[in-house]
Sequence to fold (107 residues):
Amino acid sequence: MKNISLLITCLALPCAAALAQTTQQYQFPAAPGSLSPPSTLTITQEGAGSAPAVSGIIHDTPQSVAEYQRCRTVSDRAAITNADRQNGVMQCLKALQERRQQGAVLQ
Fold:
């Protein structure tokens, strides 16, 4: 009995997903004298639901972004090798993360 209900559920899921899709088809006849067959354009639009939630996104303050950009400019100019540049970027990102943890961001 469990297998039958599981089978019905598995078969019903694609149907539910299909209900959330909108499909439009456009037929284009072949041009007169053309040897090409008529063409069909199919457009499928999935999930015309609500916009996704934006919770948990971090928006840095303009001051924090300016500080990060200044840090990057200084470290890029001071770098001699690619490893120096990578270390500078890592330090700038660490400082940005510390500012985020201290609450210098808008949430």
User: Anything to note?
Assistant: The longest strand covers residues 21-28. Residues 1-13 have pLDDT under 50 and may be disordered. Helices lie at 2-19, 62-78, 82-101. Strands lie at 21-28, 39-46, 59-60, 105-106.
